[in-house]
Structures are given as structure tokens and as C-alpha cells.
Amino acid sequence: MENERAVPLAERMRPQTLNDVVGQEKLVGSDGILRKIVDKKEPVSLIFWGAPGTGKTTLARIIAREMDADFIEISAVIAKKADVEDVIVRARQNWNLQIRTILFVDEIHRFNKAQQDAFLPHVESGLIILIGATTENPSFEVISPLLSRSRVVVLEPLTTENIREILQRAIKSEKAVKRVTPKALDLLVAMSGSDARTALGNLELALGMTEKVTPEIVEQAVGRRQPNYNKTGGEHSYHISAFIKSMRASDPTATLYYLARMVEAGEDPKFIARRMVIFASEDIGLAGNGALNLALSAFMSIERVGMPEGGIILSHVAAALAKAKKSRESYEAWAEAKNLAKQTAHLPVPLHLRNADTKLMGELGFGRSQSGEKQQWKPGFRMSNVSYLPDGIDPKTNFFAPESQQPHWKDPY
Question: Is 153 helix (H, G, I), strand (E, B) or coil?
């Protein structure tokens, strides 16, 4: 019993089957992808993307148990080359015994490109089934070849109802139903930050402090309220969406408010700066051709200055983008151009727009209109009575407003 109590409460309460999992219904429900993988015992590599405490490690262990596979767990934070080599040796031994090997790599985004490359041949051959866990966007942190050979599974943040159910299970398991007041339970849920591991850790700490857990005891145990934010999942996307929409609405106050919430919660400042770079072209565009350089300067400055001083730079540029005039003309024109290009990719480039690099090409009419007019190398030159679009596309096609209607950059200050 003493040894059992030495194991943290969060570990003791870890689900052992998919039916025990709280939350993630889209993944573990009757039609969930993980349920189907387990039922079919399908060997497939996975990348779990989700906030801390959403069940990435738990689900990996359950899959391995259900598949009767040898489960090997390493952390990219501390793993060395020798550790990976040991995994491969063990996997080859399992292969000879017709035993599957599931390698779980926690925080796989911490491995560099070369380290991630090392897994590719073994994933391709089926020697190992890789399950990577990351709190960061796999599109940016996991190499493309590995992504293409895996299924990305997004774990949603746990709801307050999920956290409450997990805590209630733990309280019952610890025979502490009468020890935790309803208001203390409410506070434990509110201060969890949607992280089941944090919630259970806080409960364990509070139970160890006193016989009767009240809100005051919870506050003493936890220290301070966790921000309602995580770097991935719901709150992450909600905050960045609110930030961008506030800039789009030209509301600098709301812009800086959501910026401050993200920065205070520990959001990666480069992520914020990257979104501002996109915003500068997508939402300001031709109304302010200097906005892109301003946003790019913010990104580069963050790399060089770092935080917390980088917050001043983010605030400066975010306010400028919010105050700037807006235009989506170039963004919408690009969408139209891509759509038209997909539909007409079979049409040849007109002869008069092709370079006459050889004598034969000149004789065939390359670089000349049907009237014999030759393309000239000087600014603004345009052949008369010809379309610069391929035959088959309406020559009157225009993605842009008339020149008189096009907006121009004006410094918001």
C-alpha cells in the first residue's frame, strides 16, 4: 500500500482502456479513429497533437496494450542517439518473434530534422509503429516525410465537465468524498487550465494538506489561478482568432488586449509575429504596401531581442496593423487567379508572349503579334490589340478594381 501511495495520483488514475477515457469522444467513441485502429489492430503511425493533460501518453499506452505490442517510451527532451539505437535493436528482436513494437516519442517536436529522419526507414519498413506526441503544430515542427507516413490526430482540450468527472472519480477512488467541499471542487476545476494532470496534482496536494479541503485550502495548494489558455487546441485558436479579427476590425485596444493575454500565458512570440506577417498581406495588402515590411521587421526583431522586451515590439506593430487601412483586393485576386489557373492550365501561352530565343522561333512568330508588332523591353510597354491571357480566356477578365478605385498606403500615424 505504501508503494502504491508513492505513485502520483495522476498516474494511479490513468485510464487502462478506451472505455475508461474521459473526453476525446470523437477519437475513442464508436466511430472514432482510435477506436477503429484498436478494433482492427491496424498498425499505423500516429502524431498526437494536443495541449498538456489531454491524454496523449495514456492513449498511446492503451493502443499498445490493445494490440499486444511491445511499448517503448522515450522523451525527445532527454533521449540520446544511443537510446534510439537501443530501440531499433529491441524492435528487430521483436520482429523476429513476430511481436509489434510501438515507439512512443513524447515531445517529438524537440527532435531536430536529422533525429526525425532517423525514424523514417524503420517506419516505412514496419519495424516500428511510431506514435509521436507534441503540443506544437506538427505542420511546423514535424518533418514532412514523417507526417506523410503518419496520421495526425488532434486532441481537443478537456471541457470543465470532463475535468469535473475526472476529479470526482479520483475523489471517490481516494475515499475522500466527504473531505472535499463542492465549492473546493468547483475551484479545482476552474484552476485546472483544462489539464487533467494538473487538476489531479492539485487535488492530491490539497488532500495532503488537510482533512477538509475548502476553497481556501485549494488556493493555498495551487498558488494562483492558471490562465484559461493553452498553446494548442481551443483556447489557443480562440485567442489568435480574436487577435486577428480585432486587427481586421481596426480596434487597437482589443488587439492589444488579446495580444497581452497570449503573451502573459506564455505563447510563442514568433507564432504571433508570423500571423501578423500573414495579416499584413491578407488584410492590408495594397492599402499599405509598407505593412508587410513592418510585420516582417517585427518577426526578425523578436528573433534578435527575445522576451520580455519583444512584447513592446509586438505591441507597436500590432497597433499599427490595427490602425492601418485595410484591403483584401490582392488576396481575393490571388484566389481568383489560382482558380482560373486550375481550370485553364491546358491552354498554351500565347506566341507573342514567348521569347524568340532562336531564329526558328522568330520565324514561327514567337515574340510578335499577328500584325508583326514586336514585344519591346521598356517599362509599361504593351502590344496593341492583343490579350496577355491565353486564347480561350475572356480578354476582359480582371481580378482587380479599376486603377482609380485601388487604395494606396497611408501611414496610420
Answer: strand
* Sign of the four-CA dihedral 102, 110, 54, 178: positive
Cell numbers for 239 = 485567442
Global confidence as pTM: 0.58
* DSSP string computed for 56-80: HHHHHHHHHHHTTPEEEEEETTT--
DSSP string, 3-21: HHHHS-HHHHT--SSGGG-
Q: Exposed, middle or buried, 398 (CB in 10 Å: 0-12/13-18/19+)?
A: exposed
CA distance linking residue 283 with residue 260, whole number of Å: 22
Alpha carbon separation from 131 to 98, 136, 403 (Å, rounded): 19, 15, 54
Closest-CA residue to 200 (of 229, 153, 165): 165
Q: Which residue has the cell 484552476?
A: 191
DSSP one-letter code for 305: H
pLDDT at position 233 is: 53
Please determine, for residue 102, whether its predicted confidence score (pLDDT) is greater than 80: yes
